[in-house]
Design brief:
By secondary structure, the protein is an alpha+beta fold. It has twelve helices and five strands.
């Protein structure tokens, strides 16, 4: 009897070794030849009116911190906070959530912004967009601030420079024009405006040096603390005892000022804040004592 053949059928071998079915082959062919169609969307150009609107809105954004600084200046100078708060700092903290120094930074930045707009070259259209960018400029004299800003814009390749870039430029200028600071804490000085808009209204005021910086001093006056460049200070050369006496007078004036009394009282304090002598007359002492008594019983 013949033995059955042990040779497998070719069809069996073919079906067991070929894992790609006709359906899979068709799918691979479809995948290899698939194309993606992208529809181009045409973006219309801005009309002249839209370009004008965009520029106007951009300017509003850029000037937001400037407008805030100008508004805060008027609120402070006219003491429009006096009906609800004793001090400007308390008012800004409770009304706007500002830290103690923040409103003064904005006020200072508004003055610098005005200066840049007025004195920068006509072909420089790049202006600051926030207070932090130009804070380093406060260390420079107003006449030098435009030069520093223009250098910073150039370093930023014609764009709005960062705080770091402006700070670096200011540092280079300060090193170039460095003047030694010989003032001492507690020294009594007179403030000289010299056409500095930042010191408007402070010309002739005396103050106590509270902090000595490389190129400026923090000076305490009857209505606050101001950072003043060395070129805007003049020492009275008082004796140590006289300086201590003026420190006491400054503290007394400050307490009366922060109490929020009438505008006429503010004028009296302003007059005392411009004395060029290290003492009060008998009449001035009596008037100040009356005001101190008033705020104690208020």
């Amino acid at each position: 009897m013949a033995k059955p053949s042990s040779k497998p059928k070719k069809s069996t071998i073919s079906s067991s070794t070929d894992s790609t079915s006709p359906d899979n082959l068709a799918q691979e062919e479809d995948t290899a030849t698939a194309t993606i169609t992208v529809t181009a969307v045409e973006v219309p150009e801005l009309t002249e009116q839209e370009q004008s609107d965009r520029l106007h809105l951009e300017r509003r954004v850029e000037r937001a911190f400037f407008e805030a600084g100008k508004a805060l200046t008027e609120l402070r100078d006219r003491r429009l906070y006096r009906s609800t708060h004793k001090t400007f700092e308390d008012y800004c903290r409770e009304r706007f959530g500002f830290s103690r120094r923040q409103p003064y930074h904005l006020i200072e930045a508004a003055v610098i912004f005005d200066n840049l707009v007025e004195k920068c070259e006509r072909n420089v259209h790049i202006l600051p967009t926030n207070e932090w960018q130009i804070r380093p400029l406060s260390k420079l004299d107003p006449d030098i601030q435009p030069e520093a800003w223009e250098q910073a814009v150039e370093s930023a390749n014609g764009k709005v420079p960062s705080h770091r870039i402006v700070k670096d430029v200011v540092q280079r200028i300060m090193e170039r024009t460095k003047v030694p600071n010989t003032y001492q804490i507690g020294e009594v000085c007179q403030i000289l405006t010299k056409d500095n808009p930042e010191l408007r209204g402070k010309g002739g005021c005396w103050g106590i040096v509270a902090r000595v910086n490389d190129f400026s001093c923090a000076v305490k006056t009857w209505d606050g603390v101001y950072t003043v460049g060395l070129q805007h200070l003049k020492s009275y050369n008082y004796l140590p005892a006289e300086c201590e006496q003026m420190q006491v007078i400054c503290d007394r004036l400050g307490r009366v000022y922060s109490s929020g009394l009438e505008e006429s009282v503010q004028k009296f304090l302003e007059m005392l804040g411009k004395l060029n002598r290290a003492y009060l007359t008998d009449l001035e002492e009596k008037l100040l004592a009356v005001l101190e008594f008033e705020i104690k019983t208020k």
